[in-house]
Amino acid sequence: MNVKITSVAKQLPKYYRETKDIIPFVKIWMQDQEERFQRKVIKLFEGAGVDKRYSIMDPEEVFTATSFEEKNDIYTREVVQLAEKSLKKSLEKANLKATDVDYIITVSCTGIMIPSVDAYLINSLGMKQDIVRLPVTEMGCAAGVSGIIYAKNFLKANPNKRAAVIAIEAPTATFQLDDFSMTNIVSAAIFGDGASAVILSSYEEDQGPIIVDEAMYHFYDATHMMGFKLVNTGLQMILDKEVPQKISDHFPEIIHPFLENNNLTIDDIDHLIFHPGGKKIVQTVEDLFGVLGKNINDTKEVLRLYGNMSSATVLYVLERFMDRSPAKGERGIMLSFGPGFSAQRILLEW
């Protein structure tokens, strides 16, 4: 029995700005900082590889001294709407109803809400009363792939079932107004908000790429490299500058043994569905794959158009490939990195 990805659909928030239109807000925010530092920050925003980003808040709200409670209230209100819209779109693509879903996984790390988003979707969409729920809250950028892995394992054990994985993220709600560290600034320069929903199936008649294999890879002694610290003003980003080098050092062990376990090499892979963590990480991975004769152009394009939307971003890359309908027999690798520090991998075959 095979588990397939039958549809993917994204949903963007209502607010958006091109980076050039955000720069004036950044200048006002930085006005009391040393002039040389201000120029460095503006240059960072302009060179981040992000032309546009979407947000659950307009820029005035983002650059206002709102409390954690106020920002989290906006998060809880908006992510439920984004999740519902993206799931409806994905169900429509797959010609399914909400009651056709047996397992629902929601992933998000950029706000706090109990009950989790899935509970609201069950009510608003009238989903099955015996649907199995799994909220994933603390895996950061890796959680989109992680959610698909959990769904695949559920479906592998349960023939004739379907699962929905919905990733909803609002990193702009984590922006720290009084924090002028490079971590906060880099985060503001690369992150955007967005949602995406994936439908998976273990029905034989349902169509889509087969999940051939999946695996996680955990880096030792790297828990300090990525994540959030809960402070009085909200979720404060942790992002170590050594992350790109860490990825580079472990890259051969992440890619080659995984493929070898499936009697494949990188030459057998047609599509690279990689999470765009940021310009430096993208450049690092592009260099590593480039040596192997592969490109990550779709990853770069998603970063340019939307920024890094944490767990949802790799699903935007996946949707681009799905919408192009790759030829039968073509293969792809999904790859994302997240707190832990860990790498999540999925091998697909159309």
From TrEMBL:
SUPFAM superfamilies, per the entry: Thiolase-like (SSF53901)
UniProt keyword list: Transferase
Annotated signal sequence range: none
Thylakoid recorded as keyword: no
GO biological process: one example: polyketide biosynthetic process
Family to which this protein belongs: Belongs to the thiolase-like superfamily. Chalcone/stilbene synthases family.
MF terms (GO), sorted A to Z: acyltransferase activity, transferring groups other than amino-acyl groups
Domain Chalcone/stilbene synthase N-terminal intervals: 25-201
Active-site residues, record numbering mapped to chain: C141 (acyl-thioester intermediate)
Record's protein name: Type III polyketide synthase
Domain annotation Chalcone/stilbene synthase C-terminal: ranges: 223-348
